[in-house]
Amino acid sequence: MNTYVNNENNTVFNVGLEKNQANYAALSPITFLQRAASVYPNRTATVYGNIHRTWQETYDRCLKLANALRSRGINPGDTVSIIAPNLPEHFEAHFAIPMAGAVLNSINIRLDAQAIAFILEHGESKVLLVDKEFSSVVKAALELSQNKPLVVDIDDPTWEDGETIGSIDYESLVNEGNLDTPHFAVQDEWDAITLNYTSGTTGNPKGVVYHHRGAYLNAISNSISWSMSPHPVYLWTLPMFHCNGWCFPWTIAAMTGVNVCLRHVRADDIFNLIKSEKVGYFCGAPIVLNMLNAADDDLKAGINHTVDVMTAGAAPPASVIAGMEELGFNVTHVYGLTETYGPSVVCSWHDEWNTKPLEEKAKLKARQGVRAPMLDGLMVADPVTLKPVPKDGKTLGEIFMQGNLVMKGYLKNPETTDESFSGGWFHSGDLAVWHPDGYAEIKDRSKDIIISGGENISSIEIEDVLYRHPHIQEAAVVAKKDEKWGETPCAFVALTPGSEGISDKDIIQYCREHMAHFKAPKNIVFGTLPKTSTGKVQKFLLREKANHL
Amino acid sequence: MNTYVNNENNTVFNVGLEKNQANYAALSPITFLQRAASVYPNRTATVYGNIHRTWQETYDRCLKLANALRSRGINPGDTVSIIAPNLPEHFEAHFAIPMAGAVLNSINIRLDAQAIAFILEHGESKVLLVDKEFSSVVKAALELSQNKPLVVDIDDPTWEDGETIGSIDYESLVNEGNLDTPHFAVQDEWDAITLNYTSGTTGNPKGVVYHHRGAYLNAISNSISWSMSPHPVYLWTLPMFHCNGWCFPWTIAAMTGVNVCLRHVRADDIFNLIKSEKVGYFCGAPIVLNMLNAADDDLKAGINHTVDVMTAGAAPPASVIAGMEELGFNVTHVYGLTETYGPSVVCSWHDEWNTKPLEEKAKLKARQGVRAPMLDGLMVADPVTLKPVPKDGKTLGEIFMQGNLVMKGYLKNPETTDESFSGGWFHSGDLAVWHPDGYAEIKDRSKDIIISGGENISSIEIEDVLYRHPHIQEAAVVAKKDEKWGETPCAFVALTPGSEGISDKDIIQYCREHMAHFKAPKNIVFGTLPKTSTGKVQKFLLREKANHL
């Protein structure tokens, strides 16, 4: 950092000028809800089927729920968990639970009973809100768990499947509360607001703790990254359990927007809501964009306004960007981790790129980019020395982040917390190059890189080539131990139906034609790929397999 | 406040999760400049005549100036003053001076030598940057002042008048610095960033201290209030010495916009720049809008884009709003004080107001409004008990603010600081009513209210009526002591040329026809009104005069 420090505090500017109640307030996204309700009480806050609730109604419900939780013995610093789709209740939980002084723990709906049980125990949940769609897996989790939280059913009348398993339902709990009791006032903006478990591909998930300050700042950073219009209409395609929906519940409150809620991510629902609610913004993984691209033309027809889309998780291919642009959708590529409140890096667009050919635009947009407005530091550097790599677009380094959009740390895990912060930077574990214009582009996860004959080979680069093969449906590349080279790339490949004639030699040959020879995989293994509950390929299993070929 | 406090900090969420260099950074607007220069190095930052500088160039110049100031012995917490129009140098000072760890003191260019001398002494300035246009008054001030700062000339080649009076010029000072030395890194966001003297109508000005946190947050609050587009083109009609240009130097850096600089606020320059630079935003007092309205049609012609205008200081009359709308200018009314970083209250617009008749729209827009996005508390309350007044649009109370957009305090003035923060709220001194929709509307300064027979009479209300009289050019109303009523309103009036036939009786009669009889002034005094250097009427002089009639 191009800075120096001086701690002389004995100037006239530090005498008789202390913080007090008049001139200081803890940063907390709860204030966004308070302001929305006081300035625009009658504007719509949440839409779900026939339910339309205003900001005043939403604030009142949160106030009552916070009060009800307090009355049931929830104390500041207690954990309240939720397993639910993107319903209005899930949005409300992002405010009501901190308004009780408690910490929101939104659990991935795709986890199995064992993983849920682990989280309930590790996170010490006192209350669990659960939507009926997930009551059977939660029931099994509760049987496994030593911790037995108060279970509250979210009983969506438009969802018929699933039984209620709680001792009270959400609406009754809300109605236990009253409007007259003050809610919790955050005094220290460093206090925890949420707890998000990472979906690690190995071992137990880690509990990432967010604080009020970071939630407030990333909410605002989102709105600036996207230059959001006033009162944005936001469609909830991105799960709220992913980094608290990338902090967008708080962004939408700050902007007094509309939360268009959605149980399932389906092309018909999405297009119909975009048209009927005039949705202007949504977020989603490239797979969601793919699904929309592939939808029927009659679904796509009739959108006469601009839609801004934020995507992360993988670079959107050119064909996806082109398809989106044809629909009038403008795609912003962002990057982040659970540890950085979701997107903390953004591929900030330059106007002069608009006139470039599509392929080139897609290449520019495929880069992860630069620090988001409120991230304080971003660098690509040597993983050990933390010396920044040259901005040559070639030298591989690890991505490091610094500042207010970095988590408080991992819950009850000081060793891993310290490790991840060693040297004063957060270690992302993602390997990238730094382009001359300062934009970072990820090449691999650090543990997935293949070091062959002293050369770093990006598994992602090989996978990109494999995905372009017309008969390959899915591919994953890992390192295989090798006496001569140290490691060599080994590809696991699932073919499209009817491609049985393709041999491993064909594929290796194809790779050699499309990349440096030393990078081409030495082994090809056919078959389906093992995945986690969130759809991530379990490369550690493939590595074991590769080493036992 | 509808909140309660709990200081239990002994939860699992506060163990092993402390602040460190990786996960915490002090909020400071300097980071906006760093990001603008690193992400958009080649975008234009400042425009002034033939000068066009990019964000990289601007950052480099700031880095060098900061380094040069350090080399000349400026230490963290030292004061550096500037007296200059809205030039690129003035913009740079908003970053370079804090980057030296110093505190920027931007002095009102309309002050006389004595007032400037007072500020240089009270603020303990170590360096004074001065534009040639003001060198003669500054020279006189320096002769009066016991404090003799290093004087640096800003030698604008497009401005021929005035002599250079310093020991070095700005460009040479910049060139003394180097790019390789790190600049000051703010460790405590509560550290002072600027010092702004109020233009009190009585007594010596007070030094209002801003900190990095507040400057950062109000900069962002501005951009949200206005829903600014990316890379906004901002015209510098509002003086940078007014609350640091309402914090817009930092806003424009945060948005990587363009600062279109301007020496004098003239209709021809403004219209020409709006057209040639495609200006999208500017701020100004209603008098500036008036001037633009009154400009020649050929100046006004040819604007084909929307221009957003922020105004404060007085409510914009319906005719001004109508004129602006005809030009395609959209007016936002804001309110604040030097003590609240400029605008901290905004008349947030509601879409449903668009269809109302102009007069009604103007009435709605004339209200000061609600808290800006990042102001934490706003209320209209009893000045003594701090009990909020009913939201009935009638009951008079004082406006109080709370939170991060309230100053650090008054420099070397702990008594007045404590007084202004007593009860945990900042006392604005402005009297207002609170409308049922939560919007505040100012009726008077607390010291200007007239209490007659136990009734509060707003001097502003009487002045509004007087201003509608076709032969009155200027008017000011103050309290005159009265044995029977306690106080009665006394009006000081300047007539338009050729209105000599108008008598005091005519005016009193006019008032009685347009307001409750008890509110009509009992005395009318003709003549010009005494004003401060910033154009504020000196009501304390009029009060003395009224009591000696």
Please bin the fraction of helical residues of chain A. Answer: 25-40%
How many distinct helices of chain A? 18
Unreliable stretches of chain A, pLDDT < 50, 5 or more residues? none
- In the CATH scheme, the class of the domain at 35-231 in chain A would be Alpha Beta
Main sheet of chain A, how many strands, which sense, barrel? 9 strands, mixed
Strand-pairing-aware structural class of chain A? alpha/beta
Supply the key terms.
Rossmann fold; 25% strand; homodimer; lipid metabolism (chains A, B); ANL_N_sf (chains A, B); five-stranded parallel β-sheet; 549 residues; ligase (chains A, B); GMP Synthetase, Chain A, domain 3; alpha/beta; nine-stranded mixed β-sheet; Acyl-CoA synthetase (chains A, B)
Quick description:
Chains A, B: This is Acyl-CoA synthetase. Chain A has about 550 residues and is of the alpha/beta class.
